[in-house]
Amino acid sequence: MSSYNLAGFVILFALSLGLTFAIWGLVSKSLQGLLDQALKLPEGTAFYRRSFLLGLLLAACAGSLGTNFNFKPGDHFMEYVWRVAGGVQEVCEFLFAFLLGYLVLVTILVAVLRAKHEQ
Amino acid sequence: MSNEQYLIVSYFCVGGLAIVIAVAVYAYLRRPLAGLASAFPNRHLASILERLFAAGLVLPALAGFLSVDYQSCHQSYQSIIADRSYLVAKNQEQVSAVCFFLMLAILGWGVVVLLSLVARPKEPVPGGEAEPNRR
């Protein structure tokens, strides 16, 4: 792997991690409040928060590691840029799929447990 | 290192890495799950959940690793080991599949924990009826 290929991969990986921690930073506190309210069990809150962070990280890794940089030294700069863009698109798809699944899960969790607490 | 040696070494290294990633995920989630399980009145359910959790993460990781097929595009073994960049791409694909399968496993375990929480009886009120289902 040439140094340009390695640099392309590192940039893609850094962007993926940046996206992951941006999402985590945006919803982490609200998620904790919601889970505390719904579960009333600190271990439950810890489990679902850690699952969320792990899922985001795994989605980012799955997306970025699936992108292959095999350019030759003479290839153009924009080809690297397009490959990084393709990788970021894949990361976004994985993150979106995970967020969708997780949101459905948490919505069901909150709805079912609220109904149970109100009984 | 020849391409064939690289193929052998990288295949087993990525297989080991899959197990290491799964064990790391297990180590990070083990304590909250054990704490949750200890809150279940039914000790058998708690014990089953705790024991199956490790297997429920390592098996999907291995499934992801094994899901990548080296012979999907190339027909012969010789043509597979002729191209080093193809081997590197397959290694990346394996790690990517491991991460994806683990992500699905985490969502699956979230559903299992949800169902266990829903099935959990309400906390007994002091002085109220006897505690149900305690074993």
Note down, in words, how this protein is organized.
The complex is a heterodimer of chains A (119) and B (135). Chain A has one domain. Chain A is mostly helical. In chain A, helix 2 runs antiparallel to helix 3. Chain A starts with a helix and ends with a helix. In chain A, 87% of the residues lie in helices and 0% in strands. Chain B is mostly helical. Chain B has one domain. The model of chain B is unreliable at 128-135 (pLDDT under 50). Chain B has four helices and no strands. Chain B starts with a helix and ends in a 16-residue tail after the last helix. Chain B has helices at 3-38, 43-66, 77-82, 84-119. At the A-B interface, helix 2 and helix 3 of A face helix 1 and helix 4 of B.
Structural class of chain A: mainly alpha
Helical percent range of chain A? Answer: over 70%
Regarding quaternary structure, how should these chains be classified?
Answer: heterodimer
Q: Report low-confidence residues of chain B grouped into runs of 5 or more.
A: 128-135
What general form of chain B does the structure show?
elongated
Per DSSP, the total helix count of chain A is 3
Number of domains of chain B: 1
Intertermini distance of chain B: 60 Å
Q: What's the total helix number of chain B?
A: 4
User: What Rg of chain B do the Cα atoms give?
Assistant: 22 Å
Beta strands of chain B, count: 0
* Whole-number count of domains of chain A: 1
Strand content of chain A: under 5%
Helix content percent band of chain B: over 70%
> Which structural class fits the helix and strand makeup of chain B?
mainly alpha
Q: Largest protein interface?
A: A-B, 33 and 33 residues
